[in-house]
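Appendix B, example 12.
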Amino acid sequence: MSGENLTRDEARRRARLLSVDGYEVALDLRSAVAPPPADGARTFRSTTTIRFACSEPGASSFADLIAPKVHSVTLNGRSLPVDTVYDGSRIILDGLAAENELVVDAACAYSRTGEGLHHFLDPEDGEVYLYTQYEPADARRVFANFEQPDLKAPFGFTVTAPAEWTVLSNGVQEGEPQILDEGAASTRRFARTQPISTYITAVVAGPYHYVTDTYRRTLGSGAERTELEIPLGALCRKGLARHFDPEDVFTVTKQGLDFFHDHFAFPYPFGKYDQAFVPEYNLGAMENPGMVTFREEFVFRGKVTEASYEGRANVILHEMAHMWFGDLVTMEWWDDLWLKESFADFMGALALVEATRFEDGWITFANRRKSWAYRADQLPSTHPVTADIRDLEDAKLNFDGITYAKGASVLKQLVAYVGRDTFLEGARRYFQRHAWGNTTLGDLLSVLSETSGRDMEAWSRDWLQTQGVNSLTPQVTCGSDGRVTELAVLQEAQGDEPVLRPHRVAVGLYRHDVAQSRLVRYARAETDVTGARTVVAGLAGQERPDLVLVNDDDLTYCKTRLDEVSLATLRAHLGDLTPPRAGGRPAAAEEGHNAALSRALCWSAMWNLTRDGLMPARDFIGLVADFAGDESEIGVLQMLHVWSRTAVTHYAAPEWREQGRRALAERALSRLRLAEPGSGHQLAWARHFAALATDEKDLRLLQGLLAGTARIDGLDVDQELRWTFLETLAARGEADAAAVDAELGRDDTASGKRHHVRCLAARPSAEVKAEAWKAVIESDRLSNALVDATIAGFAQPGQEELTAPYAGPYFEALEEIWRTRSIEIAMAVVRGLYPDLQTDQATLDATDAWLTAHEDAAPALRRLVLEARDDLGRALRAQRCDAASAGGPTG
């Protein structure tokens, strides 16, 4: 892997030397349907012509290409000796002229790891499906190029493939296909793109199910009135067509295009808008202009909750925001990855809330996205939003919760700081000023300073160029009359370089209304928190609160802490944070108050206390048992299910763990039976129950639901839910290989195959674990999706004794895995097989020993191990807190 790396310094030198006029790329994909070779990789023909200028004639540089074989390299009409100029990842270019033409003819390899041109053979119908995925630097696996984001250029693609296939690229197809092989194949040419970076070029090819629609919009008025028409497409594998709902995809797409046209004042610049849902995808989605790709799990094969539809809509809008933030205007180098990802995350959420049916999207943002950011920002690998990215391996790991969710949270804080109109005007100027170019942080700060009149450099230093998350805690002083004399907010920072930041926050005061069994917000004040202690104006004289919620309405990015009274109130009444009852007159402070958002923020505060070892895991589990059943927001409920299972598996004292798991399972079954038949809540409780079931009666129920001999009113045990139940039964030793094979017979599809592999690896047998380990560690034959499935099955809670023998071999294999596997597979193995389920000091010591003995290991590999070590250390601290609480609750 290391030989394929590219450093920031190398990229900067090349960018100073070269400018690219354009690419012509011809791909011959007919080999995709041919029998695989007896030995070696399955390959396709790739012929690339690059026209580029050199500012220093006579200088040397290099082009990027990763290919099993290069047939020829021609520079300015001169044939170069391949064995001399090509080293497996770079083509050395000596003696460059002022104007150059490079032609590279190569045999490139189809991928089975989701990197480059991925080749998928559908087990259901034997059809082949292809798609490309490049970010940050895998276009070089498909065609020769200059693989860095600031060497943008127009691209023209020509693709030869089976004639009956759907073949798509960034641009529209030009003219009719050229028929070849007596009609068996055809060559299609696609319109030349605007200047874009290599990593967002795309080709999708195969017998995809393809549906079309059209977006129409009138822009401007009077003499400037124009009619905009954008062809829309949505596609998936033929085997998924019966589950596909393109109407909903198109609805969200049109709503998003309306929203961005209304707010960006820059028409969508890439012509058509295709969206492909593709198999074995490593990411959620990718913003290739005109040809967005998504993981096909967004085509729902069974019943899902509304949270899943909201999640898909959010991803659609996130990728659409990238058409402007990232594709039209692109960061210069991966240091400023946030310039696209943070903005897309924020603008996607804003569009979701304001343009679609998912009006409570900010609740999901506060509960899920920020949880991701808080975790990442407390790891030893935490970094500023604007990161120091030394090379491509660094870049690959920085697609993290800081770059996405913290960056988006910071932008949400910025909007509260400068105002929404000011922020959007800055975005509009940014697009107009830098269209088709590359930018850095300074370019964005410049336009925001213009529109806001504020010192954006100071804001940037505080929020973008420092790391770590602040904690905000209320401090309430009351007089003898029971009224507030002073309410202050205390700010803390941790880490090697603690920073106290300015925060725009809303502070809400709540009383417990016994008659209505509600926590009612009766006062609210907004303030700017600065320094270690800030007095909140406007709340003195209010009656003593039962709950003080700092960062009510979720304006800033912080960990919300609770004073002792507030914590006690939530322990007893968290479920009472609800909207006014029908017919009740809301208090003045409740006008427009989103009680569900406040409740989600309280849950997040409780979870952060648990993760930080400040509240026993059993207390958090008790809160979930007591109050999650009344949670109205399905996305919050599903997050609580995940958190409670994490708490019982990693944070609870080992001697109490099984008791906690049984308590959660009992409550889950009770709520499952009480849930509205056919509702999303019922489905969520069913999945949660299945993940927790351990004792005989629960396992018998799952078997009965699979066999049809047991029934819960309204619960449709569809194929996806069957696999969920079967995985639990397999992991508990109640379903053998024959039962798992029989289920594959019912669902002999690509999705079924992944479930099958996971269930087989989940069985509680030493032989099974040995087979799974060998399949992942000692072989590279599994595709990326099946590697993930095997790892997921291997690491099962409750099977610690079976997986303990692999802790030593894990550390022994790390460097070889990193050296020999693609970075996607290596990351999956390093993260997925880390022995965190052991949750013991011996594993922590083994991790420290490896880190000490391998100080010269690849920095990206060390980062992954350090992150895993930090999670384990956190779990051990939380377990000590939980064990210490056995005599009673502690705060």
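The CA atoms of residues 156 and 343 lie 29 Å apart. The mean pLDDT is 95.
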